[in-house]
Amino acid sequence: MNYVDGFIIPVANKDKEVYAEYSRKTSALFKEFGVINIVECWGDDIQPGKLTSFPQAVMLKEDETVVFSWMTWPSKEVRDAAWEKMMADPRFAPEAIPMPFDGKRLIYGGFQKLVEF
């Protein structure tokens, strides 16, 4: 069964195109290592909440928006092997492809598919 990695990322508004280029570069590597598809969504209706919200989760600053992203893998095993290889691949190093966001505020997790329509 497919496996999904999900991300919530704070990105400076001025870096929207920089982020898109970062995504294109990293997506090529992810595809090389087996990802099926990647979806990147630029927030345009992200409201602060009273208890929880996307802005609160990433400590969103006034000049930022939230990127909601996910990638689908053939299986958790393929995903685990791919991440291990990518972390060792110099093409994926921060010096090779600098992250245009604060990685300390990125939220990431792996998910087993429960229902798909």
UniProtKB/TrEMBL annotation:
Q: Which domain of life is it from?
A: Bacteria
Q: Which SUPFAM superfamilies match?
A: Dimeric alpha+beta barrel
Matches recorded under InterPro entries: Dimeric_a/b-barrel, DUF1428
Protein's name in the database: DUF1428 domain-containing protein
The species is Undibacterium cyanobacteriorum
Lineage runs: Bacteria, Pseudomonadati, Pseudomonadota, Betaproteobacteria, Burkholderiales
